[in-house]
Write a structure and sequence with these properties.
Strand order of the largest sheet: 1-6-5-4-2-3
Structural class: alpha/beta
Number of strands: 6
Shape: globular
Number of helices: 4
Helix content: 25-40%
Order of helices and strands: HEEHEEEEHH
Radius of gyration: 19 Å
Distance between the termini: 52 Å
Largest sheet: 6 strands, mixed
């Protein structure tokens, strides 16, 4: 009887610790034609960290043409508008719990690809913004060259 109770307690503790390590990724790859276009990453108005600059840098590291700036200020040469939704959470420190990056056709506003990255506090330990950005981009840019990481 004692052994069974000890086993149940041990399994419960393991389950609690394992749920702290969750990382989830999802996405819809861009259409092949998009890899030749120019990407404009719009900075979210409430983003004091300016993740738009990091996203544009990671796109360029993948040999894609990208720039970033304020919403509505895309250059004429831009073919695609990239937006993102970043969600932060507090757990002894602020960390990026989820990031969704969407790419829309500039002329039609139709979503042509997206990538999602989600991680719990424990899984995000030691990760930089670029790590989270790259996980989301990996889902959206399946055919683009990977940056040297």
């Amino acid at each position: 009887m004692k052994l069974t109770a000890l086993l149940k307690i041990s399994l419960t503790i393991c389950a609690v610790f394992l749920t702290g390590c969750i990382t989830k990724i999802d996405g819809q790859p861009l259409v092949r034609d998009a890899y030749q276009g120019m990407f404009y990453v719009e900075r979210q108005p409430n983003d004091g960290r300016n993740l738009a600059q990091n996203i544009a840098t990671q796109l360029r590291a993948r040999k894609l043409s990208a720039t970033n700036g304020e919403p509505g200020a895309a250059p004429e040469s831009a073919d695609y508008i990239v937006s993102y939704i970043d969600r932060w959470q507090w757990d002894m420190r602020m960390y990026l719990i989820s990031l969704r990056i969407e790419t829309r056709d500039k002329n039609t506003s139709r979503v042509v690809g997206y990538g999602d990255s989600y991680q719990t506090s424990l899984a995000a330990m030691g990760m930089s913004f670029d790590d989270v950005i790259n996980r989301a981009l990996d889902q959206m840019l399946l055919e683009a060259p990977l940056p040297n990481r």
